[in-house]
């Protein structure tokens, strides 16, 4: 089979990289720049570093700090309106995945003559918009989504309570691990498990490729080693560097190989229960490994080995169970909450079946994700992690 792989946009990686924002913006031809961020990131002083760097490069800057969790559609609309009002020619997003996805949504919406609901409708029908997005630099402050290197913006349709993936490629990513120093344990762990889930799904999708696979196994090793260290010691720069690299590599990997049923379920959980994306990803990933082990026994076994587990099973189903249980143990040690901890009942989680059955990502699962399979997977999330 011929497989296709690529890297969506250039990446500047390293401690202090945020100070190069102005130079990168100049290379891209920016002059009037909208900075997209949220109040937390602004308070931490990260946004100011971007403002200073852009100002030093002679840019005029406009600030939009109203981003909210999970990129609600109305924030994308407000930001796009600002772009038009101020004749903005370049956008910089600095924040977690929610901010980056809002910035991506703004960059594509503002370049086209449509409303945000029309943008979401065309995304639902997999119809790209006519004009390419306004040039966009993305700077993550969490190590999880990899959104700075993926083509998709996950935007919340607040009327229909759905999370929709719209096409919105960034122009450049600046990954500066110093921006994640001091992140609280919970956010560190949840976002780290999001990156972990990206590579588990990229390895087991219907369209894996050799380039993604290499990045995926490396990501598993880095997260298994460094996530507990960063969780215990939030100011450990070496841990933050490894997690930032893992998250970005995971984004590059799944941008080609894609995620599948796990993210269809995570989106349903996010849209229905408004829980952090990383928790939903963590809870579903062991179930996905168990489900796909009969199709990819060697790969799932290698995921276990990269985690430092000894997997002596040879039967594909048993390999899946052993690796899934090893991952659940790792997550318990990191403090990933259970569904009962989140006050979500067994009935409620199984109630997501219909949402998942209508999510396009399920078609990228190598095991047919029938309604029966989805309901059983949802029940397993509840039953197998208590
Ligand atoms: N586009 C993609 O390819 C892609 C991939 C995965 C996930 N996502 C989306 O990304 C969103 C989740 O992003 P996330 O997990 O990064 O969380 P988030 O962006 O929602 O941020 C969570 C919280 O962390 C805070 N925060 C950000 N940086 C911080 C720092 N350095 N220190 C302390 N607090 C900080 C934020 O202000 C926020 O309160 C979801 O909506 C998910 O669907 C998108
Ligand atoms: Fe994710």
Describe the overall structure:
GO terms for molecular function: alcohol dehydrogenase (NAD+) activity; metal ion binding. By secondary structure, this protein is α/β, with parallel strands linked by helices. It has two domains: 11-179, Rossmann fold (3-Layer(aba) Sandwich); 183-383, Up-down Bundle (Dehydroquinate synthase-like, alpha domain). Helices cover 52% and strands 10% of the residues. It has 16 helices and eight strands. The strands form two sheets. The protein has a six-stranded parallel beta sheet with strand order 1-8-5-4-2-3, with helices on both faces. Helix 7 (185-203) runs parallel beside helix 9 (237-257), helix 7 (185-203) runs parallel beside helix 11 (277-292) and helix 11 packs antiparallel against helix 13 (316-334). It starts with 10 loop residues before the first strand and ends with a helix. Nicotinamide-adenine-dinucleotide (NAD) is lined by residues 38, 40-41, 69-71, 95-99, 101, 141-142, 144-147, 150, 152-154, 163, 179-180, 183, 187, 191, 194, 277-278. Residues 145, 194, 197-198, 263, 277, 281 line the site of fe (ii) ion (FE2).
């Amino acid at each position: 089979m011929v497989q296709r792989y690529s890297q969506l946009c250039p990446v500047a990686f390293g401690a202090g990289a945020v100070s190069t924002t102005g130079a990168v913006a100049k290379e891209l031809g920016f002059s009037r720049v909208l900075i997209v961020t949220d109040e937390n990131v602004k308070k931490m002083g990260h946004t100011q570093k971007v403002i200073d760097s852009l100002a030093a490069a002679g840019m005029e800057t406009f600030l939009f700090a109203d981003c909210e969790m999970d990129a609600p559609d109305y924030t994308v609309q407000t930001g796009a309106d600002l772009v038009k009002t101020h004749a903005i020619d370049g956008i910089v997003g600095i924040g977690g995945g929610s901010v980056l996805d809002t910035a991506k949504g703004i960059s594509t919406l503002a370049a086209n003559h449509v409303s945000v609901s029309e943008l979401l409708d065309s995304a639902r029908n997999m119809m790209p918009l006519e004009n390419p997005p306004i040039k966009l630099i993305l700077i993550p402050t969490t190590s999880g989504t990899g959104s700075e290197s993926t083509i998709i913006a996950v935007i919340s349709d607040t009327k229909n309570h759905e999370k929709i993936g719209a096409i919105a490629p960034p122009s450049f990513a600046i990954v500066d691990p110093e921006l994640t120093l001091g992140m609280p344990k919970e956010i560190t762990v949840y976002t780290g498990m999001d990156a972990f889930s990206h590579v588990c799904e990229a390895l087991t999708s219907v369209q894996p490729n050799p380039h993604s696979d290499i990045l995926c196994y490396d990501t598993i090793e880095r997260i298994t080693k460094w996530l507990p260290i960063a969780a215990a010691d939030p100011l450990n720069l070496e841990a933050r560097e490894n997690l930032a690299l893992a998250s970005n590599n995971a984004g590059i990997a799944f941008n080609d190989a894609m995620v599948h049923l796990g993210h269809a379920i995570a989106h349903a959980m996010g849209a229905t229960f408004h829980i952090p994306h990383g928790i939903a990803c963590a809870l579903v990933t062991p179930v996905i490994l168990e489900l796909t082990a009969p199709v990819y026994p060697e790969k799932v076994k290698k995921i276990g080995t990269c985690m430092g587990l000894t997997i002596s099973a040879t039967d594909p189903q048993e390999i899946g169970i052993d690796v899934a249980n090893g991952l659940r143990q790792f997550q318990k040690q990191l403090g990933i909450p259970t569904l009962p901890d989140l006050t979500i009942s067994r009935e409620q989680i199984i109630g997501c079946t219909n949402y998942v059955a209508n999510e396009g990502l399920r078609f990228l699962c190598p095991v047919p994700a029938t309604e029966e399979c989805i309901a059983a997977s949802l029940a397993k999330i509840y039953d197998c992690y208590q």
